[in-house]
Amino acid sequence: MRIFDPHIHMTSRTTDDYERMAAAGVRALVEPAFWLGQPRTSVDSFTDYFDSLVGWEPFRAGQFGIRHHATIALNPKEANDPRCAGVLDVLPRYLEKDGVVAVGEIGYDSMTAEEDTAFAAQLALAITHELPALVHTPHRDKARGTERSVKVVAESGIEPGRVVIDHLNEVTVATVKDSGCWAGFSIYPDTKMSPPRMVEILRQFGTERVLVNSAADWGRSDPLLTRETADLMLASGFTDDDVDLVFWRNPVAFYGQSGKLELAETEAGASFEGNSILRGGS
Fold this sequence. Notes:
Layout: E1 3-5, H1 15-24, E2 26-32, H2 43-54, H3 56-62, E3 67-72, H4 87-95, E4 100-107, H5 113-128, E5 133-136, H6 142-156, E6 163-166, H7 173-179, E7 182-186, H8 195-205, E8 210-213, H9 225-235, H10 240-255
Parallel strand pairs: 1-2, 2-3, 3-4, 4-5, 5-6, 6-7, 7-8
Protein backbone atom coordinates (compact mmCIF):
# COMPACT_ATOMS: atom_id res chain seq x y z
CA MET A 1 0.00 0.00 0.00
CA ARG A 2 1.28 3.48 -0.89
CA ILE A 3 0.13 6.51 1.07
CA PHE A 4 0.45 10.24 0.36
CA ASP A 5 -0.54 12.27 3.46
CA PRO A 6 -1.76 15.57 1.95
CA HIS A 7 -1.78 17.53 5.23
CA ILE A 8 0.54 16.83 8.15
CA HIS A 9 2.66 19.17 10.33
CA MET A 10 5.94 17.29 10.63
CA THR A 11 7.67 20.25 12.28
CA SER A 12 5.70 19.16 15.37
CA ARG A 13 6.65 15.48 15.08
CA THR A 14 9.74 13.45 15.98
CA THR A 15 12.07 11.66 13.61
CA ASP A 16 10.65 8.41 14.99
CA ASP A 17 7.33 9.41 13.42
CA TYR A 18 8.98 9.58 10.00
CA GLU A 19 10.34 6.07 10.55
CA ARG A 20 6.93 4.71 11.61
CA MET A 21 5.19 6.43 8.71
CA ALA A 22 7.60 4.98 6.17
CA ALA A 23 7.05 1.49 7.60
CA ALA A 24 3.27 2.01 7.26
CA GLY A 25 3.53 2.87 3.58
CA VAL A 26 3.77 6.68 3.59
CA ARG A 27 5.92 7.67 0.61
CA ALA A 28 5.02 11.34 0.23
CA LEU A 29 3.44 14.17 2.22
CA VAL A 30 2.53 17.83 2.18
CA GLU A 31 3.26 20.03 5.20
CA PRO A 32 1.16 23.20 5.31
CA ALA A 33 2.40 26.30 7.08
CA PHE A 34 0.32 26.77 10.23
CA TRP A 35 0.11 28.31 13.71
CA LEU A 36 2.81 26.89 15.96
CA GLY A 37 0.83 27.05 19.20
CA GLN A 38 1.93 30.45 20.45
CA PRO A 39 2.05 33.86 18.75
CA ARG A 40 4.98 34.72 16.54
CA THR A 41 6.22 38.22 17.14
CA SER A 42 7.73 39.29 13.82
CA VAL A 43 7.88 38.58 10.10
CA ASP A 44 11.41 37.21 10.60
CA SER A 45 10.07 34.39 12.75
CA PHE A 46 7.87 33.36 9.81
CA THR A 47 10.73 33.42 7.33
CA ASP A 48 12.82 31.18 9.58
CA TYR A 49 9.86 28.80 9.78
CA PHE A 50 9.27 28.86 6.02
CA ASP A 51 12.98 28.16 5.46
CA SER A 52 12.69 25.04 7.61
CA LEU A 53 9.69 23.83 5.59
CA VAL A 54 11.67 23.95 2.35
CA GLY A 55 15.01 22.86 3.83
CA TRP A 56 15.33 20.91 7.07
CA GLU A 57 12.04 19.02 6.91
CA PRO A 58 12.60 17.66 3.39
CA PHE A 59 16.00 16.48 4.60
CA ARG A 60 14.53 14.69 7.62
CA ALA A 61 11.81 13.07 5.53
CA GLY A 62 14.32 11.99 2.91
CA GLN A 63 16.23 9.91 5.42
CA PHE A 64 13.29 7.48 5.34
CA GLY A 65 12.44 7.62 1.66
CA ILE A 66 9.54 10.06 2.11
CA ARG A 67 9.07 12.93 -0.33
CA HIS A 68 8.29 16.13 1.56
CA HIS A 69 6.44 19.08 0.02
CA ALA A 70 5.09 22.26 1.61
CA THR A 71 2.36 24.84 1.31
CA ILE A 72 3.20 28.39 2.37
CA ALA A 73 0.89 31.09 3.74
CA LEU A 74 -0.03 33.41 6.58
CA ASN A 75 -2.37 31.20 8.61
CA PRO A 76 -5.85 32.46 9.53
CA LYS A 77 -5.26 32.73 13.28
CA GLU A 78 -2.21 34.98 12.93
CA ALA A 79 -3.83 37.02 10.17
CA ASN A 80 -5.46 38.88 13.08
CA ASP A 81 -2.11 39.97 14.57
CA PRO A 82 -0.87 43.30 13.10
CA ARG A 83 2.74 42.22 13.77
CA CYS A 84 2.27 39.55 11.08
CA ALA A 85 0.76 41.68 8.32
CA GLY A 86 4.13 41.96 6.56
CA VAL A 87 4.17 38.20 5.98
CA LEU A 88 1.97 38.75 2.93
CA ASP A 89 4.82 40.73 1.36
CA VAL A 90 7.37 37.90 1.68
CA LEU A 91 5.12 35.10 0.45
CA PRO A 92 5.82 35.55 -3.30
CA ARG A 93 9.47 34.54 -3.03
CA TYR A 94 8.56 31.37 -1.12
CA LEU A 95 5.73 30.44 -3.47
CA GLU A 96 8.28 30.18 -6.28
CA LYS A 97 10.52 27.72 -4.43
CA ASP A 98 10.90 24.07 -5.37
CA GLY A 99 8.67 21.76 -3.35
CA VAL A 100 6.06 24.45 -2.57
CA VAL A 101 2.94 22.96 -4.11
CA ALA A 102 0.13 25.24 -2.87
CA VAL A 103 -0.81 28.37 -0.95
CA GLY A 104 -1.99 27.33 2.50
CA GLU A 105 -3.28 27.07 5.09
CA ILE A 106 -5.54 30.02 4.39
CA GLY A 107 -9.16 30.69 5.29
CA TYR A 108 -10.86 31.31 8.62
CA ASP A 109 -10.28 30.93 12.34
CA SER A 110 -12.71 33.46 13.85
CA MET A 111 -14.13 34.94 10.60
CA THR A 112 -12.88 38.46 11.22
CA ALA A 113 -12.41 41.31 8.76
CA GLU A 114 -8.65 40.80 8.97
CA GLU A 115 -9.08 37.15 8.02
CA ASP A 116 -11.26 38.20 5.08
CA THR A 117 -8.47 40.44 3.80
CA ALA A 118 -5.73 37.83 4.18
CA PHE A 119 -7.89 35.09 2.64
CA ALA A 120 -8.70 37.12 -0.47
CA ALA A 121 -5.11 38.33 -0.87
CA GLN A 122 -3.71 34.82 -0.70
CA LEU A 123 -6.23 33.39 -3.16
CA ALA A 124 -5.04 36.14 -5.51
CA LEU A 125 -1.45 34.97 -4.92
CA ALA A 126 -2.48 31.41 -5.77
CA ILE A 127 -3.84 32.64 -9.10
CA THR A 128 -0.77 34.76 -9.83
CA HIS A 129 1.67 31.96 -9.00
CA GLU A 130 -0.48 29.29 -10.67
CA LEU A 131 -0.72 27.23 -7.50
CA PRO A 132 -3.57 25.33 -5.85
CA ALA A 133 -4.92 26.60 -2.52
CA LEU A 134 -5.46 24.77 0.78
CA VAL A 135 -8.32 26.26 2.82
CA HIS A 136 -8.68 25.76 6.58
CA THR A 137 -12.24 25.75 7.92
CA PRO A 138 -12.77 27.13 11.43
CA HIS A 139 -13.05 24.86 14.46
CA ARG A 140 -16.01 26.89 15.72
CA ASP A 141 -19.20 27.50 13.72
CA LYS A 142 -17.86 25.21 11.01
CA ALA A 143 -20.98 25.13 8.85
CA ARG A 144 -21.12 28.90 8.50
CA GLY A 145 -17.37 29.09 8.06
CA THR A 146 -17.44 26.52 5.29
CA GLU A 147 -20.27 28.29 3.46
CA ARG A 148 -18.40 31.57 3.74
CA SER A 149 -15.18 29.94 2.50
CA VAL A 150 -16.95 28.56 -0.56
CA LYS A 151 -18.35 32.03 -1.30
CA VAL A 152 -14.93 33.72 -1.01
CA VAL A 153 -13.37 31.09 -3.28
CA ALA A 154 -16.08 31.70 -5.89
CA GLU A 155 -15.60 35.48 -5.68
CA SER A 156 -11.83 35.17 -6.13
CA GLY A 157 -12.05 33.73 -9.62
CA ILE A 158 -9.81 30.76 -8.89
CA GLU A 159 -10.85 27.50 -10.53
CA PRO A 160 -12.69 25.47 -7.84
CA GLY A 161 -10.83 22.32 -8.86
CA ARG A 162 -7.62 24.02 -7.72
CA VAL A 163 -8.94 24.47 -4.15
CA VAL A 164 -9.24 21.94 -1.34
CA ILE A 165 -11.42 22.93 1.62
CA ASP A 166 -10.19 20.95 4.61
CA HIS A 167 -11.26 19.73 8.06
CA LEU A 168 -14.74 18.82 6.83
CA ASN A 169 -17.35 16.68 8.55
CA GLU A 170 -20.76 15.18 7.82
CA VAL A 171 -22.43 18.60 8.07
CA THR A 172 -20.13 20.40 5.62
CA VAL A 173 -19.13 17.84 2.99
CA ALA A 174 -22.12 18.37 0.69
CA THR A 175 -21.53 22.14 0.58
CA VAL A 176 -17.98 21.64 -0.63
CA LYS A 177 -18.79 18.82 -3.03
CA ASP A 178 -21.50 20.97 -4.66
CA SER A 179 -19.03 23.87 -5.05
CA GLY A 180 -16.64 21.92 -7.27
CA CYS A 181 -13.81 22.24 -4.75
CA TRP A 182 -11.95 19.23 -3.39
CA ALA A 183 -13.10 17.92 -0.01
CA GLY A 184 -10.47 17.43 2.69
CA PHE A 185 -10.85 15.40 5.88
CA SER A 186 -8.55 15.25 8.91
CA ILE A 187 -8.56 11.98 10.88
CA TYR A 188 -8.01 12.57 14.61
CA PRO A 189 -8.12 10.41 17.75
CA ASP A 190 -10.91 12.42 19.43
CA THR A 191 -12.08 15.27 17.21
CA LYS A 192 -12.72 16.23 13.58
CA MET A 193 -13.11 12.85 11.86
CA SER A 194 -12.60 9.20 12.84
CA PRO A 195 -11.77 6.27 10.51
CA PRO A 196 -15.30 4.75 10.78
CA ARG A 197 -16.96 8.11 10.07
CA MET A 198 -14.61 8.67 7.14
CA VAL A 199 -15.40 5.30 5.62
CA GLU A 200 -19.11 6.04 5.84
CA ILE A 201 -18.63 9.42 4.14
CA LEU A 202 -16.69 7.72 1.33
CA ARG A 203 -19.50 5.20 0.99
CA GLN A 204 -22.09 7.99 0.76
CA PHE A 205 -20.25 10.61 -1.30
CA GLY A 206 -17.75 8.54 -3.26
CA THR A 207 -13.97 8.61 -3.59
CA GLU A 208 -13.54 11.31 -6.25
CA ARG A 209 -12.03 14.70 -5.33
CA VAL A 210 -11.45 13.62 -1.74
CA LEU A 211 -8.26 14.10 0.28
CA VAL A 212 -7.85 12.22 3.56
CA ASN A 213 -5.09 13.36 5.91
CA SER A 214 -3.84 12.98 9.46
CA ALA A 215 -3.17 16.71 10.02
CA ALA A 216 -0.93 15.49 12.85
CA ASP A 217 0.58 18.35 14.82
CA TRP A 218 1.64 19.32 18.38
CA GLY A 219 -1.76 18.39 19.80
CA ARG A 220 -3.20 14.94 20.38
CA SER A 221 -3.01 13.41 16.91
CA ASP A 222 -1.65 10.36 15.10
CA PRO A 223 0.37 10.31 11.85
CA LEU A 224 -0.64 6.68 11.24
CA LEU A 225 -4.39 7.31 11.07
CA THR A 226 -4.16 7.50 7.28
CA ARG A 227 -3.06 3.86 7.25
CA GLU A 228 -5.71 2.91 9.82
CA THR A 229 -8.41 4.50 7.65
CA ALA A 230 -7.09 2.76 4.53
CA ASP A 231 -7.12 -0.60 6.32
CA LEU A 232 -10.69 0.01 7.49
CA MET A 233 -11.74 0.85 3.93
CA LEU A 234 -10.49 -2.56 2.82
CA ALA A 235 -12.17 -4.31 5.73
CA SER A 236 -15.43 -2.53 4.84
CA GLY A 237 -15.53 -3.74 1.25
CA PHE A 238 -13.65 -1.05 -0.65
CA THR A 239 -11.14 -2.34 -3.20
CA ASP A 240 -7.39 -1.92 -3.37
CA ASP A 241 -7.98 0.47 -6.28
CA ASP A 242 -10.36 2.57 -4.16
CA VAL A 243 -7.73 2.86 -1.45
CA ASP A 244 -5.01 3.76 -3.95
CA LEU A 245 -7.25 6.45 -5.43
CA VAL A 246 -8.00 8.07 -2.07
CA PHE A 247 -4.55 7.77 -0.52
CA TRP A 248 -2.30 8.22 -3.53
CA ARG A 249 -3.78 9.21 -6.86
CA ASN A 250 -6.10 11.89 -5.48
CA PRO A 251 -3.39 13.89 -3.66
CA VAL A 252 -1.06 13.42 -6.64
CA ALA A 253 -3.77 14.81 -8.94
CA PHE A 254 -4.56 17.78 -6.70
CA TYR A 255 -1.04 18.90 -5.82
CA GLY A 256 0.25 17.90 -9.23
CA GLN A 257 -1.55 20.99 -10.54
CA SER A 258 1.35 22.98 -9.09
CA GLY A 259 3.79 21.47 -11.60
CA LYS A 260 6.23 21.07 -8.71
CA LEU A 261 5.34 17.68 -7.27
CA GLU A 262 8.38 15.39 -7.01
CA LEU A 263 7.73 11.72 -6.35
CA ALA A 264 10.93 10.07 -7.52
CA GLU A 265 12.77 7.97 -4.95
CA THR A 266 14.75 10.11 -2.55
CA GLU A 267 18.48 9.98 -2.00
CA ALA A 268 19.25 10.57 1.67
CA GLY A 269 22.02 13.07 2.23
CA ALA A 270 24.47 12.80 5.10
CA SER A 271 23.67 16.17 6.63
CA PHE A 272 21.85 19.47 6.23
CA GLU A 273 23.64 22.69 7.17
CA GLY A 274 26.17 20.54 9.01
CA ASN A 275 23.57 18.68 11.06
CA SER A 276 22.22 15.16 10.77
CA ILE A 277 19.41 13.26 12.48
CA LEU A 278 21.91 10.93 14.12
CA ARG A 279 22.72 11.12 17.82
CA GLY A 280 25.40 9.54 19.95
CA GLY A 281 28.68 8.03 18.78
CA SER A 282 31.88 6.53 20.07
